[in-house]
Amino acid sequence: KAGVTQTPRYLIKTRGQQVTLSCSPISGHRSVSWYQQTPGQGLQFLFEYFSETQRNKGNFPGRFSGRQFSNSRSEMNVSTLELGDSALYLCASSLTGTNTEAFFGQGTRLTVV
Amino acid sequence: GEDVEQSLFLSVREGDSSVINCTYTDSSSTYLYWYKQEPGAGLQLLTYIFSNMDMKQDQRLTVLLNKKDKHLSLRIADTQTGDSAIYFCAVYNTNAGKSTFGDGTTLTVKP
Q1: Which A residues 37-76 touch B at CB under 8 Å?
Q2: How many Cα atoms occupy the beta-carbon half-sphere of B85 within 13 Å?
Q3: Measured between alpha carbons, how far is B35 from A103 in angstroms, rounded to an integer?
Q4: What are the Cα distances from residue A19, in Å, to A41, A47, A69, B99?
Q5: Closest of A13, A4, A19, A10 to residue A103, by C-alpha
């Protein structure tokens, strides 16, 4: 079965712009979690969506938001981009999100210039 | 909050065993994971262990969990050059509803 698909793979944006990243989970999986990976901070949890509802949230400013659609696909939006938002954004898909295996996509590499 | 620590680097010779260590702080963690990340790629789930287990073996991989010391290890037998990657330990906290990752251990396998 198909894995987790993230689009686009690479993105270059200018400071102040906004960006939307997409994640299609494994078929049948209802939980999608988003992580930011940077060399300095490692992997940081952004938020988790389950059945179209944000269930858990990490410690990121309100510029970072997300949503999940009825088909479990999720989007993550970052507004008013800053240079420090440059990172690899990973999404993880799991059946229920609670105590189950999480499978990661390849990530979207965002560069803010 | 949860803190997960790993050593940053490990270098071994091809054919040797590799042992990657991880310590964590939250005793209420329920699932403990090992992920592998190759350059330019996402994270690949290698294996995981429930908190009520001491050991799990999966082909060349052996996971050991010492709950008392909050210590997790991943042993890779007969390490190959294709095993060179960054290995992340992650701990799932039921109360927080999220996984906390270590900073990753870069494994280098020399021929």
Answers
A1: 42-43, 45, 48, 55-56, 58
A2: 20
A3: 10
A4: 21, 17, 18, 25
A5: A4
Q: Do A42 and B41 count as a contact with CB atoms less than 8 A apart?
A: no
- Rounded to an integer, the average pLDDT of B22-47 is 88
Q: How far apart (Å, rounded) are the C-alpha atoms in residues B58 and A74?
A: 32
What's the CA gap between B111 and B108, in Å, rounded? 10
pLDDT for residue B51:
87
- Whole-angstrom distance, CA of residue A44 vs CA of residue A58: 8
Per-residue pLDDT at B30: 80
The residue among A1 and A73 whose pLDDT is bigger is A73
> 3-state class of B87 per DSSP?
strand
Q: Rounded mean pLDDT of A16-29?
A: 97
Which residue's entry shows tokens 């992920």? B35
pLDDT (0 to 100) of residue A49: 94
Residue B84 in this model has a pLDDT that exceeds 90: yes
What percentage of chain A carries pLDDT values higher than 90? 82
* Chain B interface mutation, best of A4, A30, A43, highest count of B Cβ atoms under 10 Å: A43
